[in-house]
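Q: Hi! First time doing this. I have a protein sequence and I read that you can turn it into a structure. Is that right? Here it is:
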Amino acid sequence: NFTADNTPDSILFSPDGRFLGFSLGIAWKRTAGDVTTGTSHTLIARSAGEIPLAFSPDSQIIALYVGREVEFWVVATGKLMQSLEVDYEVRAMQFYRMANALALGC
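A: Yes, that's right. Below is the predicted 3D structure, encoded as structure tokens:
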């Protein structure tokens, strides 16, 4: 449940509809939750505020932009897979459905 104190800054369903990703900037938490089982993983980030989120086409990976890095997390386990440093502020991101590619918008 969300309240006025923890309203999400960003919210996104996975392509398969199973997971819900959201960003709570005030608490520096990013969460991916399984809507079919009610389980969730909290992904701790290093900055506050609205954070772009993107699920991979197969719903297995969630990408987050955090403090000049794009982080790739395994949704099922909540484990950080990889992070890539970027030289600009990312305001939007989207996976390309037909390839292992992520578009970043600044």
